[in-house]
Design a protein that fits this description.
The complex is a heterodimer. Chain A is mostly helical. Chain A contains 12 helices and no strands. In chain B, helix 10 packs across helix 11 and helix 11 runs antiparallel to helix 13. The chains are: A mainly alpha, B mainly alpha.
């Protein structure tokens, strides 16, 4: 039997706003978050189109222009907008190419810890007898070590490099996902809709991934944003300690480490990479704050 | 209260064993043969190799190796450094005061300014000062402190020449280590300028190390203060006609401090991780620099047990904070 569709014009303003629109309204109220988003869009653009955006090749050495100051200063040249480093490489180009690495490390380490983190958290929440506590004990152990230190230890064992940096950071940020997922799952499990799904005969995987998980996503999205920024920070710190991505790859932290020797002569090779790190991390944290306010109003005053 | 402490202590034991498993596993995870890695690049002749395996107990099954490891730890044997042949524990003991002094200075800096900024921001909510404090603390929270250190050195040490670039004290002074705390040891010294010199060495590193805790404490104090100021007892205190300062600092801040206390505990980890970076930048002879140098030199006993000691330290501090928290808030104490 078909029911004829009513031919009444629906007043759009009376409808409940779509979740996306509602989210955007809440998010865009936070000016800092929008500013952070805009800055990050710029960084993402630079990272995606680095070879076309950057004025020079990041590893090309202009031997006659070592340590050229930024263009607006005395002695600066317009072709090297932000100046050159100790080997005559264009700083702006290196920063732009560096954004690729930072975003890549951030993104892959978040994915690599988010997925196992959610799985472990779901298991811990669904099996609160034996598996839950043992998983949580393990996470407590990992939390007992300062994150950077654990990352340093892992890299010390695996050896420095891009992939090992990603692994180290992913391992380090795992516990917070597990804890968050478990806490959210425990909160949802007593709800009526879960009981209803159980009674309807939903299988365990279905209960986990289709019924419960989507309702636990808000804090996880916020945490993913925040751990994205700390991944960038930790990767740069590892690079700075000489344990991360190795030179001559233009990684921001690695650039800082090699700039240390020129601290008395060339402020720009020291200041600019760090400033880029600070601004990116700040932008992501601002976005994270906005996301938290928009997605998870309960947490608004929590931190 | 005693049963509360006992319960918390009971939770520590599995965590401790977990940590030993972790540090034990660290060495097993080295790709390839640990003996070859420790002996370096040159080829090891098979007999020496077997001897080294025997000496390090690496030819036994894994579970036996772990039992050996924990047994040694139980006897206080943390092994010896491959480079200096001194025991890991004595190296840690001699370097730790430097890190502790730096951390205490950083926490004092962060605590004083963080609390002050947080309280004023909460009192003047929505003002320019409030926005300023929140903005700066967000920036502080996002700060790559290794870069922040370099910038401060560039400005205060290189350009202005106000503070020294590195180390704990000028090489001119010969200070006998009594307590390991430079600021105390220099007081016993005959040199007049030694104490001031030690202080000048301490300022920049403690600002750098204190930056992130400062930001966190300021934010936390502000939000917790805002919450407390809305409470009925604060209104009552105001209505009784108490002076505003008494209301804010005695009725307000005292209660607002409870969550801030936890943050202090949580910051220990941040501080120790930050110490690794800060000590590297300022050549500060503490455990952070020691650990990084050990990693560079593949000095695995130092790496393994240095990490174990730091983890124990973090656990211990969190335990103490837990207890303090229980003292300050009876509701926590009686929770099951």
């Amino acid at each position: 039997m078909t029911t004829p569709t009513p031919a009444v014009a629906v007043d759009q303003s009376l409808l409940y706003p779509s979740p996306y629109k509602e989210f955007w309204q809440a998010f865009s109220k936070n000016k800092g978050a929008v500013a952070g988003l805009l800055f990050m869009l710029l960084v993402v653009f630079c990272a995606l189109f680095a070879p076309w955006v950057a004025p020079h090749d990041p590893s090309e050495q202009f031997r006659d222009a070592l340590l050229t100051p930024p263009s607006w200063l005395e002695g600066g040249q317009w072709q090297y907008l932000l100046g050159t480093d100790e080997l005559g490489r264009d700083l702006l180009s290196r920063l732009i190419h560096g954004s690729r690495l930072s975003l890549l490390i951030g993104l892959s380490s978040v994915v690599m810890s988010l997925i196992p983190g959610i799985l472990l958290g779901l298991l811990a929440g669904f099996f609160p007898r034996i598996m839950g506590p043992s998983i949580m004990r393990l996470m407590d152990v990992m939390l007992a070590l300062p994150s950077l230190l654990l990352a340093v230890a892992i890299v010390a064992i695996l050896g420095p490099g891009l992939i090992n940096t990603v692994i180290a950071i992913a391992v380090v940020s795992l516990p917070s996902y597990v804890r968050l997922t478990r806490a959210a799952v425990m909160g949802e499990l007593n709800r009526d809709y879960v009981t209803a799904a159980r009674l309807a005969g939903a299988s365990l995987p279905r209960l986990m991934f289709v019924t419960v998980l989507p309702n636990c996503m808000a804090p996880l999205i916020v945490q993913a944003t925040l751990s994205f920024s700390s991944a960038i920070l930790d990767a740069a710190a590892l690079g700075f300690l000489g344990l991360g991505v190795q030179p001559p790859t233009p990684e921001w932290g690695t650039m800082l480490a090699s700039a240390r020797d020129y601290i008395e002569r060339a402020w720009w090779v020291v200041s600019l990479p760090g400033l880029t790190i600070l601004l990116s991390v700040l932008a992501i944290n601002l976005m994270g704050d906005g996301l938290r306010d928009a997605l998870d109003p309960k947490l608004k005053n929590a931190a | 209260m005693l049963s509360f402490i006992a319960r918390r202590l009971g939770l520590l034991i599995p965590t401790f064993f977990g940590i030993t498993l972790l540090t034990f596993a660290l060495i097993r995870l080295i790709p390839g043969d640990p003996v070859e890695v420790m002996m370096g690049e040159r080829r090891v002749d098979p007999e020496m190799h077997a001897q080294a395996m025997e000496r390090l107990g690496l030819n036994k099954p894994l579970y036996a190796q772990y039992i050996d490891y924990v047994g040694k730890l139980a006897h206080g044997d943390l092994g010896e450094s491959l480079r200096t042949r001194t025991s890991v524990w004595s190296e840690f003991k001699s370097l730790f005061p430097a890190t502790l002094e730096l951390s205490i200075a950083a926490l004092i800096f962060a605590g004083v300014f963080g609390l002050l900024a947080g309280v004023i921001a909460a009192l003047k909510r929505g003002s320019l000062f409030d926005h300023g404090v929140m903005g700066i603390s967000l920036a502080g929270y996002s700060m790559p402190i290794f870069w922040w250190g370099l910038i401060l050195i560039m400005f205060f040490s290189v350009s202005l020449g106000w503070t020294p670039v590195s180390g704990r004290i000028d090489l001119l002074y010969d200070i006998e280590p009594r307590t390991g705390f430079m600021l105390i040891d220099t007081l016993f010294s005959d040199d007049e300028g030694a104490w001031l010199d030690a202080l000048r060495h301490l300022i920049l590193p403690s600002i750098v190390l204190g930056t992130i805790p400062l930001a966190v404490i300021a934010r936390m104090t502000r939000s917790s203060m805002l919450e407390v100021l809305r409470e009925d007892y604060v209104r009552t205190a105001r209505a009784k006609g108490l002076s505003p300062a008494r209301v804010v600092f005695v009725h307000g801040l005292r209660n607002a401090l409870i969550p801030v206390l936890t943050v202090f505990g949580l910051q220990t980890g941040t501080l120790l991780a930050g110490a690794v970076l800060t000590e590297t930048i300022f050549s500060w002879p503490g455990i952070g620099k020691w650990l990084i140098e050990a990693i560079g030199a593949r000095d695995y006993p130092v790496v393994q047990n240095g990490i174990l000691l730091i983890a124990c330290l973090v656990i211990l501090v969190n335990f103490v904070v837990d207890i303090l928290y229980g003292l300050a808030n009876p509701r926590i104490r009686h929770q099951r």
